# Entry
Amino acid sequence: MTLYSQPLIDAIAEAESLILAAPFIESEADLLEGLQYFAGCVAACTHVAFDYDRDHPFLHSGTGPFTKMGLDNPDTMYFGTRVQPGHEYVVTGRRGTTTDVSFQLLGGEYTDDNVPDSETAFDDRKLDISADGTFEWRFTPATPAQLVIREVYNDWSAQRGSFAIARTDTEGTAPPALTRELIEKRYAIAGKQLVQRVKTWLQFPKWFYDDLPVNTLTAPRLTPGGLATQYSSVGHFDLTPQQAIVITLPVTDAPYLGFQLGSLWYISLDYINHQTSLNGTQAQADPDGKIRIVVSDANPGVTNWVETLGHGKGYLQFRWQRVSRELTEADGPTLELVDIDKVAAVLPYYDSNKISEEGWRARIALRQKLIGERMVG
# Structure
């Protein structure tokens, strides 16, 4: 009996073997996290392959709380689709109250040997937005491209916007009925995309993170391949359960500031049920205009604790977006490695940084509530 799904079945086996062979797996927890991540990859690739028609585009969210990839930002909602050359497309929507909305056309796909060039990149300040928040953007790509829309929250309680896309020569029409050939093709595409997705994000950190000195952070720099108004600072950590990293940086004038941890699978940690990220609204600022973040496995009892969740190694990522000036080293973070029992001594405002068990539980409950309202569904 012919299995139409055989190409996908074969690809799942191949991709799972890549997960199982990842060189950084050191524990059962590392393996289980990888298998959980892999299941999200299968779901995302199947969704995109089967709920896609090249002549009738629809925006998909291929990255989210349960379909993670590419050190996904907990403060960002991602939408995208492929677009074909020589056809006019129209993106419509309504601007929410989120901090930033950006649009980017990538000349191809991320792969394990290629970072695609950005053909067009701008934020919503370039759009003519009506008084009611609605907007329209028309474009005709010259080459096959990938459209990516990012909606960024500096405050998780902000109102979500809306986005849609149509190809002007096919809007109002329907795609043809399903055929066996199309179903076979979609299973094959889902499988191919799955293997490539796993390979790509296993390779990506080797280019931009792994050669940096451990337990350091770079000065702010323009995000590679991103918008001209986005800066980032990156690093990777290696901590024992008895150690902590104390990061200090000035309160920024950038509309968006975000910090997060990532695992060696190059994905965000659980940011719903744990505080593994902080943004400009969530982070507590000290009276001297500085933000001090403690990264550790053990609970230091402070508001700006960012939890490693048992990860001894992983990635550190800062982002500043919608900036109106060049960021320099003075705008960036400094990092100090200390024993966990020395955290209080190196925090100059420790008494005002402390948080009770009830206060911490309230912070987590708020994260769960706002993610449920904002990102899921």
In short: The chain is about 25% helix and 25% strand. The longest helix spans residues 180-208.
